[in-house]
UniProtKB/TrEMBL annotation:
Necessary for normal cell division and for the maintenance of normal septation. HAMAP family: GTPase_EngB. This is Probable GTP-binding protein EngB. Pfam families: MMR_HSR1. GO terms for molecular function: GTP binding; metal ion binding. It comes from the Bacteria. Its cofactor is Mg(2+). Keywords: Cell cycle, Cell division, GTP-binding, Magnesium, Metal-binding, Nucleotide-binding, Septation. Belongs to the TRAFAC class TrmE-Era-EngA-EngB-Septin-like GTPase superfamily. EngB GTPase family. InterPro entries: G_ENGB_dom (IPR030393), GTP-bd (IPR006073), GTP-bd_ribosome_bio_YsxC (IPR019987), P-loop_NTPase (IPR027417).
Amino acid sequence: MQGPENAAGDGRTTDDKATIAGLEGLDLEAGRLLFAQGCEFVRGIAKADQLPAPATPEIAFAGRSNVGKSSLINALTGRNGLARTSNTPGRTQEINLFDLAVGRLCLVDLPGYGYAKAPKAKVDSWTDLVFDYLRGRPSLQLVCVLIDSRHGFKKNDREALEILGDAAVPFLVVLTKGDLVGPQRLAELTEEITTELRRQRGALPEPLVTSSRKQGGIAELRAVLAFYALPKATGSDR
Ligand SMILES: Nc1nc2c(ncn2[C@@H]2O[C@H](COP(=O)(O)OP(=O)(O)OP(=O)(O)O)[C@@H](O)[C@H]2O)c(=O)[nH]1
Ligand SMILES: [Mg+2]
């Protein structure tokens, strides 16, 4: 059941489950304007040494295969099919770079780590590619670490978070597919993850609950990403 559209008029409905405690004061309008400037696929990278010289600030989307990374990029940009998605885990096999708002931000769709419907050697090589990227990319500003709301943290999520911690790369935990679970499960998972992360790393924002299918949390995530974008080259939109 969908509720009426919310007061912000951003297409979300009042029964969306987006919360982002610890990140109050988000500028939703800045996020909307940034993403209204369009997004284009730049290229796919199969090996870390093919990455372009670091220039534009990068925001990466990391997570297990099938967690919804590519779908989230499509929901953020409002372009179904910009990033290729599939029911079959292992769809994204390269590091795909997307130019947002003509050079203001680069969105990075990563292959999934962990389980995928592909030979183990292939999955291992994607995982190495992703972990090398997360460890050593100077232009990387923030990693959205996606966790499936149905499954919670798994071993390789913890491994990825450890790499980010060691490399001092900021991250935001994003729960995906919030439309597939009830509010109680979302509240429990949020509490569980927040407690685990804060025990290890001190003050951190709570996970952001999203649904690419129902647009939950998308306006909030756009606003978070706008914080990292380069200023607009000509004129002003803020
Ligand atoms: N119900 C629901 N399904 C979703 C949502 N986001 C993604 N999916 C579905 O989950 C499946 C995987 O989505 P992808 O975006 O391809 O996942 P991915 O993390 O990019 O997967 P890989 O590229 O294989 O690592 C697809 O069938 C999507 O339609 C969501 O918010 N709600
Ligand atoms: Mg993908």
